[in-house]
Structures are given as structure tokens and as C-alpha cells.
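Catalogue entry: protein

Sequence with per-residue C-alpha cells
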Amino acid sequence: MPDNLPPAFVAYPRLPGHQLLSLQGVDAAVFAHAQFSSDVTALPLQHWQWSAWLSAKGRTLAVFQLLRLAEDHVMLVLADGDADAIASQLQRFVFRRKVKLQVHADLAVAGAFTAPEAASGAAITGGGEAGWELDLGSDALPRTLRIGPAEGFAAGSEADEAAFALAWRQADLRFGLPRLDESQREVWTPQQLGLDRLNGYSVKKGCYPGQEIVARTHFLGKAKRAVQLLHTAAPAQAGDGVQQDGAALGSIASVAGDLALAVLPLETSDAELQVGGVAAQRMPLLDGLGR
């Protein structure tokens, strides 16, 4: 373990499912701007934003944090992994762009349910061997995310890591941040997943995969469904149906323990919902995670 890491850095529990993908080179920001849903070139250096990679049909392949660390360095924090596959698919679009894709096995991601020491909102602090600190919470639910050398984070037991990862995932869902299992990729539009709450896509910037469908849905007001947070009385799985009065109403996009994000019609009655034949209670989403 490096001797120059601050104690607070070492103490953070790792988030084992998170992976990191760097885009480096003079065309890194321009390439990311053309591929992802957020306005990358308008993002100041040492700041981050939510973003997504969409299919040509406007369906969400991945939701991630996009960090603009330098003029020639963009990093993606992929909470749901799959970095190697995404890098391989992105490589097909590089052509003559001066950009190199790298999955970071040398770096790790960790978190804590405490307010950041220095980072605030979208502003990133730190860098190099000291790692980066990000504000991933709000006043209602403070959280700090740290990125740094893999050997710099304390290793807990498998059970402790799993419990912390579940708590972190549940906090994501409480903020309305979708966590997409493989079965839910290329299923939902950004509007259905509520990425507007996170400022996760732009309808003003130039073309990117799926942009035309996203813009049309936005400007014509055709979004009829969005995520709602549910507390389920029995374990649910992504893809499970949500019923109301015996009729199909929508389906679950993300699950974390007894919490779920379900894509449901914007207008529904107050009648009880069921998932898997048992009751599911609506819960309010937390604000404050938009960047």
C-alpha cells in the first residue's frame, strides 16, 4: 500500500462492481461528445456529469459518470461494470480519431456515506496517486466516491463488501439512478429511466447515437412513462411485471434488495401495486443527484 495515501482514502470500502474506462488523446472529449448523451465539450475540466450510451434506436446501453479530468482525458465510472465490452464496442467508432481506450485494472472505486472533504456538486478534487474525490450525494443523503490505486483501499470481508455494495446500490435507487443489469440494457429510453432528473442527456447538442429519438420524444412531449421507486414486500427481479387491480401496468428496471425502480405510466391511480403477487409500496425519490 502506498505510504503517501491519506488515512481517509485508505478507510473507504471498495465498490467491487464499479469499473473505470479512460478515453485519452487530443480527440478524447470530441469523441465522447459524439458518442454519449451528455454535452461533454461544455463540461469544465475537473468536473463530472451523468451520461449514457444509447443505441441507434435511442435505447439505453449504459448509464455512467463522465469525468473530464484534463483536455485530453475523459474517464467513465461504470457502476454496472462491462467496461471491456463497452471499450470493444466503442473502438469500432474511433476510426482516425486520436483517442486511446483503456480499462483500468490498476484503479479502484470506493465510497462512504459521509460528505466529501473537498469535492462539491460536479467539481472533482484530487488527482494522481492521491486519487480523485467526487460528491455523489445530497444534504439528505451525503455520499463520497473515491477513485485511486487499487492497493490503496482497505479490503474487507466478502460479506462486508456485499453488504456495503447493496447499501450503495439502494442509495442509488433512492436518488432515481438506474442500475442496469444485462437483461435491462437496450430496453429503456433515457426519458423512461428518468435521466432528465440527473441532467443525463442533452437535447441541444449535435448528433449522437439515438439523439433524434431522444429529441423527438422531448420536444413532442411523447414520454408517457418514467421511473418510480417501490418498496417490495418480497424479493423482485429486474424485468418483473408490476400490476394494478390485476392488470399489467409496467415492469421493474432495477432492483436493490427490497427497493426497485419501476417504469410506470406517468398517470396512474392511487390503487395498490403488486409485484410477483404481493404488495409494492410507492416511495418518493430523493432529489439532489443531478449534475
Summary: The first strand starts at residue 19 and ends at 24. DSSP finds five helices and 15 strands in the chain. Residues 44 and 68 are 7 Å apart (CA to CA). Residues 1-10 have pLDDT under 50 and may be disordered.
